[in-house]
Fold:
Amino acid sequence: MKAATFEPDNADRNADELRLTDWLWRRWYAKLWWSGVPIYWLGMLAALKLDTLAEVYRSAAGGYMNVLFFPPLVAFVLSFGFLRQWLASLPTQEKGEFDAEDLLARDRYGPSGVLREFDPFDPASGALWIGSTLNPLNPGYINRHPS
Structure:
C-alpha cells in the first residue's frame, strides 16, 4: 500500500507536458515573487504599529508595491509564459481548413448588404432593427418619453 502524500506522483508524468503549476511556482522568479508577497503584506500589517513603516506604505512607492505584490496580479502575470507556450503548442491551420477570418468577412453584412450593426433588416443591429419596439419605424413603437 502506498503512503498518502500531498505531493503528486510525477513518475508517470510526461517530461514535456505543459502544466500551469510549472509557471506559477517552479520558476526562480516565481518563487522570488511569491516569497515577497507575504513579506510585503506582513510589513503592511506591522505598519499599523510602526509609524516610520507606515510612512513607507503611504508613499507613492508603497502604492506601486501594493500593485506589484497583489496576489491575483502576480498569478496573472506569471501565467503569461504558460499561455504563450500553450498557444504555440496548438496545431496550426492547414491549407483548406476552416478560416475564422473568412467567416467573419462573410457575416459582416446583413440581408440588405449593409453592415450588420446598421442593417434595419438584421436583428443584430439592436434598436435599429425594424422589428424592435425601440425603433420609431416599428408599428408597435411606444414613445416612452412624451414631451
